[in-house]
């Protein structure tokens, strides 16, 4: 679609019509992920065409312009399937209101050999971390006011090879409970209570994990989420978001995060 001007215009017009018809404030593009440098270049053109169409529609209808945002990889550039890709920062700065960096899913069912902090703020052994990702966007020239940090309200699960070895990076044999080794925070809280799980806070990665028997769960809770929100505010970025709000048990983590941001102002 993005490589063809006519297809882009059809998509853009349909999106604007749908957003207005349903009374939305704007539109968010979630493309996971452009497959090559050509796709990335065309993505920048799509954003440019889209913003032009939004502004034209707003002038024509005498309404406020629709918001335009996008969900993006946690870092500005990356290799997937041995193909290097980098987002068009120039176009994002000019045409989007902000981007939502998906700072999670660093570990999961694709690697069952060891447990992992799937939304680690820091990783002492690699650049797969939220701090690295956010800073990579800023280093590439993205305006800080355009950057929003994503936080997960779900965790990843593994079955430990040895229940006595139960830290981040411990050997595992398979995914644990949940849909392909994924539990919402509501489900994690229920599991921990039912099974008397031990809950640990790892300050090296700024993440939370729990374990009971051979089951190990990596997630965020109010402690780690609050620390991450503080990091984001200190970095001077626009804000944060959760995926997904319905996974939060009685809005606990959401409330703590909100208070942390307000208190820090």
Topology (SSEs and partners):
Blueprint lengths: L4 H17 L4 E5 L6 H25 L5 E6 L4 E4 L2 E4 L2 H7 L2 E4 L28 H10 L7 E6 L1 E7 L11 E4 L6 E3 H11 L2 E5 L4 E6 L2 E5 L2 H14 L3 E5 L8 H12 L2
Parallel strand pairs: 1-2, 2-5, 5-6, 6-13
Antiparallel strand pairs: 3-4, 7-8, 7-9, 7-12, 10-11, 11-12
Helix pairs in contact: 1-2, 2-3, 6-7
Helix/strand/pairing class, anyone? alpha/beta
| Cα gyration radius (Å) | 20 Å
Per CATH, the architecture of the largest domain is: Alpha-Beta Barrel
In the CATH hierarchy, what is the superfamily of the largest domain?
Answer: Glycosidases
**Total helical segments:** 7
Please give the share of residues in helix. Answer: 25-40%
For the termini, the CA-CA separation is: 42 Å
- On the 0 to 100 scale, the average pLDDT is 97
Share of β-strand residues: 15-25%
- Tally the structural domains: 2
| CATH structural fold name of the largest domain | TIM Barrel
* Structural shape: elongated
**Assembly classification:** single chain
**Major sheet, described briefly?**
6 strands, antiparallel
Got a strand count? 13
Low-confidence stretches: none
H/E element order = HEHEEEHEHEEEEHEEEHEH
Supply the CATH class of the largest domain: Alpha Beta
């Amino acid at each position: 679609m993005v490589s063809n001007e006519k297809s882009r215009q059809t998509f853009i017009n349909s999106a604007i019509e749908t957003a207005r018809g349903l009374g939305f404030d704007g539109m968010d593009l979630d493309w996971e992920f452009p497959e090559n440098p050509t796709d990335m270049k065309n993505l920048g053109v799509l954003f440019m065409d889209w913003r032009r169409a939004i502004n034209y529609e707003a002038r024509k209808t005498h309404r406020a312009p629709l918001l335009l945002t996008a969900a993006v990889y946690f870092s500005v550039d990356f290799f997937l399937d041995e193909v290097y890709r980098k987002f068009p920062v120039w176009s994002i700065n000019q045409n989007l209101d902000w981007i939502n960096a998906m700072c999670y899913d660093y570990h999961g069912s694709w690697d069952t050999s060891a447990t992992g902090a799937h939304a680690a703020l820091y990783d002492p052994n690699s650049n797969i971390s939220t701090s690295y990702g956010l800073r990579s966007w800023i280093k590439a020239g993205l305006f800080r006011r355009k950057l929003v940090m994503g936080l997960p309200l779900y965790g990843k699960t593994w079955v430990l090879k040895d229940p006595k070895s139960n830290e981040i990076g411990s050997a595992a044999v398979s995914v644990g409970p949940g849909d392909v080794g994924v539990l919402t925070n509501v489900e994690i809280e229920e599991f921990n209570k039912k099974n008397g799980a031990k809950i640990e806070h790892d300050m090296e990665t700024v993440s939370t994990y729990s374990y009971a028997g051979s089951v190990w769960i990596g997630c965020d809770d109010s402690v780690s989420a609050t620390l991450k929100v503080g990091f984001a505010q200190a970095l001077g970025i626009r804000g944060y978001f959760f995926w997904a709000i319905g996974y939060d048990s009685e809005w606990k983590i959401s409330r703590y995060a909100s208070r942390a941001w307000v208190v820090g102002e």
